[in-house]
Amino acid sequence: MMSDKKKLDQNQQEKPMSLQAMSLLTGLIGGLVWSGIGYIFYYFNLTKLSPKIILEPIAVGAWKDGWLGVVIALTLYGILGMGLGFFYYAALKRFRSIYVAVGFGVALYAVVFVVLHPLFPSMPSILKLDLNTMLTSLCLYILFGTFVGFSISYEQSEIEDHKSPSKADLQES
């Protein structure tokens, strides 16, 4: 009896994650990883903008300058990444080009450094940023956009490829 149950369990395939859930997870991981790398870049003075800048409009107190500020900032980037991953899923998932994902990262950079600039009083305007900070930040946004965008587009194309009948199936009919 026990061996029959084992055989049945072995034959069952794991249900694949939905593309929406995968998009949220990809955004979370992208937000955590790339903001973590951004913090490392800040630590080694490759950029003058700390990832903790996200706490500026919402937090008061000295705690945000310590390790707790880093943890909460990285968590917020993960949550924002989830939202951005879902946005990419909703708006851009059908585009298979890596250039769309890179453009997504560049657009995010423009939104943060131009449109949302007034929310961050300690952040200099884009024209006053030093070259290292500007290029490092741009590269991080491009890498985030590419990671999230291309991952979601790739999964979308895989789903479409498995749903569409193959040429061999069409020739047999």
From TrEMBL:
The regions listed as transmembrane in this protein's record are 21-46, 66-91, 98-120, 132-154
Q: Which InterPro entries match?
A: YqhR
Its domain of life?
Bacteria
Q: Any idea which UniProt keywords this protein has?
A: Membrane, Transmembrane, Transmembrane helix
The protein, known as = Membrane protein YqhR
